[in-house]
Amino acid sequence: MSYYLKFTIISFIENMAVMLLMMSLFKLNYRGQFPKVILICIMLVQLSFVLRGYGWTVIVPLASAILLLLSMWLLFSLRFFHAAIVTVSTTLAFGLIQGFILVITLIYVEMPEIMSMTMDIVALLSASVMAYIAYLLRKRNWGFSFVAEGGDNHEIDYGESNNKKILLVLAVAITNILILYALTIIYGTLESFLAVVLLMLPTLGALVYLSFVKEVDKYTRGKSTESRN
Fold first, then answer.
1. Lowest mean per-residue pLDDT among 26-35, 92-101, 111-120, 169-178
2. Where are the transmembrane segments (predicted)?
3. Cβ(84)–Cβ(66) below 8 Å
4. CB neighbours (10 Å) of residue 103?
5. CA atoms within 13 A on the CB side of 12
6. CB 95 within 8 A of CB 177
7. What integer pLDDT is reported at residue 189 of this predicted model?
């Protein structure tokens, strides 16, 4: 029982930080959304606990990403394409932050067990960093606003060059998340964690760049519409 409570509390804090980072990075509205956020966090915690209990730790990141994607699509009513962007981008950011902290940790200690005290500290540190980044993004009004809550009337052109690139990067990112996490579980060495961090960085960078392009396109279309009117 104590193990379950500890796992639930720490994982909930971690997932809450992930949600805050996502909502700040993509300028999603906080107001009235916390019941949904809490529900999503609870579902993610229980999913992770059940999968780990059955020994399916390797697929936890992929399963969590799928659940988060569906939650953002259905509960926040985002376009599926936009839900995929926010989910994968935030998952990569989370993996990058936690991976970096793990690399530093492994320099000083041996490979920790998944639920050891060391990993608990790493999880809480990761959550703290994500929450602080979310705070800075919200305070400075940084982030992307092209993701429309509740959908919009603008049809997404999947044949458009930038959207094709985003779809490709999303596919690569999802594949990388699964493979790299599996490698870290199998090998669990400093080198494997460092490889994860280094490989996640360009993928996240590509998504951020393409999101920036979409942000510019949004404002360009807005100005064009205003000039015609």
1. 111-120
2. 6-26, 56-76, 83-108, 114-137, 166-187, 193-213
3. no
4. 18
5. 12
6. yes
7. 63
Quote the pLDDT of residue 115.
47
- Phi then psi for residue 202, to 5 deg, are -65, -35
pLDDT of residue 86: 93
Of residues 151 and 89, the one with the higher pLDDT is: 89
Evaluate whether 95 touches 196 at the Cβ level (below 8 Å).
yes
Confidence band for 185, pLDDT divided at 50, 70 and 90: low
* HSE-up of residue 69 (Cα within 13 Å, Cβ side): 16
Please state, as a whole number, how many other Cβ atoms lie within 10 Å of the Cβ of residue 54: 9
Instruction: Please indicate whether residue 100 or residue 188 has the higher confidence score (pLDDT).
Output: 100
Q: How far apart are CA 113 and CA 82, in angstroms?
A: 35
Predicted confidence (pLDDT) at residue 73 exceeds the cutoff of 60: yes
| Alpha carbon distance 52, 54 (integer Å) | 5
Phi-psi region of 87 (alpha: psi -120 to 50; beta: other; left: phi over 0): alpha
* The model scores a pTM over 0.90: no
Alpha helices, H only, the chain: 2-25, 34-53, 60-74, 80-108, 117-140, 161-187, 190-228
User: 């942000």: which residue's tokens?
Assistant: 215
Query: What is d(CA 166, CA 172) in angstroms, rounded to the nearest whole number?
Result: 10
User: CB of 128 within 8 A of CB of 99?
Assistant: no
Distance CA 69, CA 87 (A): 6
Give, in degrees to the nearest 5, the angle at Cα 186 between 183 and 189: 80
